[in-house]
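Structure, all two chains, one model.
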Amino acid sequence: MSRIGVFVCHCGTNISATVDCPGVAETLSHVPGVVHSVDYKYMCSDPGQTMIKDAIKEHKLDGVVVSACSPHMHEPTFRRACAEAGLNPYLCEMANLREHCSWVHDKEEATTVKAIDLVRKMVEKVKKNQPLYSIKVPVTKTALVLGGGIAGIQAALDIANAGHKVVMVERDPSIGGHMSQLSETFPTLDCSQCILTPRMVEVAQHPNITLHTYSELESLEGFIGNFKVKIRKKARCVDEKLCTGCGLCSQKCPTKKNLSEFNEGLGYRPAIYSPFPQAVPNKPVIDKTQCTFFLKGKCKVCEKVCPTKAIRYDQEDQILDIDIGAIVLATGFKVLQPDFFPEYGYGKYKDVIQGLQFERLASASGPTSGEMKRPSDGKEPETVVFVACAGSRDEAKGLPYCSKICCMYTAKHAMLYKHKVHHGNAYVFYMDIRSGGKMYDEFVRRAIEEDGVKYIRGRVSTIYEEDGKLIVKGADTLLGHQTVEIKADMVVLASAAVANDGAEELAQKLHVSYDPYHFFAEAHPKLRPVETNTAGIFLAGACQAPRDIPETVSQASGAASKVAALFSQSELTREPIIAVVNRTAPPLHSTCTGCALCVPACPYQAIEMEDIKNRDGKVVKRAAKINPGLCQGCGTCVALCRVKAIDLQGFSNEQIFAELMAL
Amino acid sequence: MQDKIRQKARELLSSGAVKVVIGYGEGTGSRVRALFIQRPEDADRLIMDERCVQNLAVYLTKHEVRAIGKPAIVAKMPVIRSINHLAYEEQFNEGDIAVIGISDSDELVDLPDLTSVREYAAKNPLLLTAEERAELDKLETMTREERWNYWLEELSNCIKCYACRASCPMCYCPRCTVEVNQPQWISVPAHEIGNVEWHIMRAMHLAGRCVNCGECTRACPVKIPLRLLNQRIIADIAVNFGQSEDYALAAFNPNDKEDFIR
């Protein structure tokens, strides 16, 4: 027979105003199995908790029902009190008399009757409770940061500065990402590289950070605190240890006419190259698709000129196995490709460019050394049209979302242009100006009022060439949809930010959800913005949604603090409220049929199939097994299992049944 | 057709490729029964005619049959679908069984492995016939109360003999939910509420798995039209999830339009 103690709380007058608390305690004292039943004004107070502890010892209680507020509020409090008195904390349950009864009903007989039912039901549950023990999962205190843009750099530095190891993986030959391509940054117009490159160097030199550039994630296994990743380190064809980054190979390389990715196709680079002079690490790679040696079998000029003999044509991709405790996804975004705008002639007319190309034109390190020269003939453009929302907010093209950064960078572009070409005309076609943010609207006003950029509210329908000019046709919706035609020398499209190449495959590799546009999905849009639905994997920057640098940096620091919190202990302690597949004596071994349908049903990939072997090592049964580190206790598998072979600890079928049968 | 099956069975048995061939044979009266042929010379006892409709796949998971050794099974379309489902549910692995497939147009189908079974099943999606649809529509025209009463009346005849379960190839669980008594989910005696509980539960457990072979209805000694329950679910799945190789009701997909789980 159970020895259960019932403790009815008045919660000041929160409960006792409508519920007869002494009456509830008195009625419950007659329920079979209840050996002690009392009421008190504040159960959660120190004297209240002491009452529970004393009663556990005095009456040798083997179960406790605290009838008070929501378990969300005080279940940990009372469970801790029970544990201090020597009772397994999971033998303590709460009946929610406040939210479920006193607050929602008037003072009448029926309210007390309902309160009694709520407590009785929990008494029946506690009779079926089993002692449970919290789950300990070891944590590997190394974080993997995927992506070496500003998001990844910030996250890596923050985690490393908290004293934890970081492995950074970047797909390109250098870290820096899109920010390294920008000329100036809004709203302060400070030089992007000047503020970024010191951080890039810090990453490379930080004792806690291991940097793998020109590398990609191959596969991921495991769970929070215990991931195992494989990294593919692509062959650079250069021995990184010997290379000093002198750049002689790039200077002498005979194949120089390869479009530069860093300059967005506006400049050229050799086949052996570092993307830009400030690259980190400043070690070149050989582009095998362009290198004369790899294409024709002879050349080897770089090998001949290299003073340290660092060229390795026979280098192969390396696969690195690394143990990881947490992952920060910071893989960034890309801008829309030319085939998206046939009506704007992007790709057809050399002087129709996208925003990142304009950044390179305006940048002092760009192909024109910062001079405003248009790509087709190198002339200074007299009239430039900036088209905002090129692709964004265009449901007809399947991109209904706002790319968020374009309003600001278009204002910046127009401003930079006016600063370089004082007599030039800058027009901006816009749908709305979205300049929410500290000093942002002031920045846009400055472009309009001080720099004289002409803003036209309306969309551009078409762009075509006539007599060496680009004719931009649009409408001015503030002047009654009047047609506007501008003869421009150059057009800059603020093309939409879209998910990076390979985002979908990466999300599938990591079991991270993603939205219809392949941006990674956060666990909760408001309250868990840097977590994913997979425990231990966090998000930073534009891989989640288009965002600007300040937002990216703060999100990266947010993700880093989550990682640091995770790494602050050597073991993860988890509530044992998880699902368990039963195991029984032979010949059944488990009532699990081994149908494996629960495996795809689990939202957390916590279920795998296990071979049950006899003492000779022969497989006698295959049954489902739940990984306690991954299971979140949602109960989907419990509901799915036809044979009821799975049960949720703390909320077992038997417990729930007992509760229902008590009513 | 019959000769081709006998020929194939003889080959499989004499070459030692399989230990037993599961097929149809003459039973008592004009009835047909399942035959388990273990010697090549017995292969001539196998028959195939319009009476041979039982879903033989039910025997594949029985441990008595497994104990004999690798089986070959005479498989018309519903049986092929059952085999596909059983393989999806990992009840046997590649190479565990051989299939003597027979198409709807009465031709032998070469199904050398489980992949070919899957492809063949995918090529012949499970669709309800016009008559089956008409019967379902008849139920649809009833009001909610009429339909509830219709089922209460039909199910009140149930004697809980579990012939539906025994004849169903997908009811292979070693311990059925109705036998779980801690807690007792389904009331065991053959009374109204217990009967309703049992049949609703069985229908739900077969959701997305039933191959519409009709064996439960044929096996029922009191003639309850059980297949209507399953056919209704088959129709609903086709409308809501389309034809999919996956088990529609269990696959968690982060991009599911229902976001309650996140």
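The mean pLDDT of chain B is 91.
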